[in-house]
Amino acid sequence: MRRPTFDLDVLRTFVTGVEFNSFAKAADRLGRSTSAVSAQLKKLEEQVGTPVLTKSGRGLALTTTGETLLGHARRLLELNDGIFQTLHESQTTGTLRLGLQEDFGEHFLSDILRRFVQTYPKVSLEVRIARNAELLALVESADLDLALIWDTGYLSPYARRLGETQMHWIGARDMPLLAALDDSSLPLIMFDAPCVLRSAATQALDAAQIPWRIALTSPSVGGIWAAVAAGLGFTLRTRIGLPSHLTVVSGLPPVPSLGYVLHRNGDAPTPAAQQLAALIKTSLREQAYRFTFTK
User: Fold this and answer.
1) pTM, to two decimals
2) Nearest-5° angle of CA 286, CA 272, CA 9?
3) Which ranges carry the HTH lysR-type domain (predicted)?
4) pLDDT of 134-169, one tens digit each?
């Protein structure tokens, strides 16, 4: 026996009428005449084999069958609309410009790109790896669509704080802390100023009255990791991208957590930009969960 197939247009009229509590309003919303809507509802009840609406005062109310049908109809329409949305997105073209701090670019970028291209295979991505000040300037000049940076306290008009991660003192596994303090000052490996982590490090050491000196500056995170691994000093960073041959050092002053913020250049992001922002948030949340259980 061949099973009947519901007409999605009819189900959409039914759902819209119930949501508006008026099939006259539904007819106007869907661009149909009231007689066409009445014919659709009649067709629907014929297919179901029992009334889905009943008179209630001056209006209509759902029957028990109608209530059951409403839930199923909504799911069918969501599935239908989702399929068309996915097909549309897969054909979307254009260019999306993303800026990242090097920590994020080194550790999250491949995962984010892999997920993004599954939904928007024809959208080109331009990725800029830079420091906070440069990325903020590019967002404000509309040369970047999105930028993920450390929270320095400045929020652009369309910024969203996504979370935070703990800062840690980092050193080489085979370099005892006391050996570094023989000359009575702690050697630091840092970015050039201004740098939010550099400021946090020097403020914490000053508050604890621990003398320090800048032993080496590097324009890249990779350079910092290399200098620390060589035993030239210690740095202050997060666990994001921490190499296995380096370790968190104890015995130095406590430092706070560091927030990260996603900036965008306008209040009306494209669907592709919205998807990329959602993937960034998901990736950061997953990474934060892993850090929680691998300390």
Assistant:
1) 0.64
2) 110
3) 6-63
4) 998 999 888 999 999 999 887 778 888 988 999 999
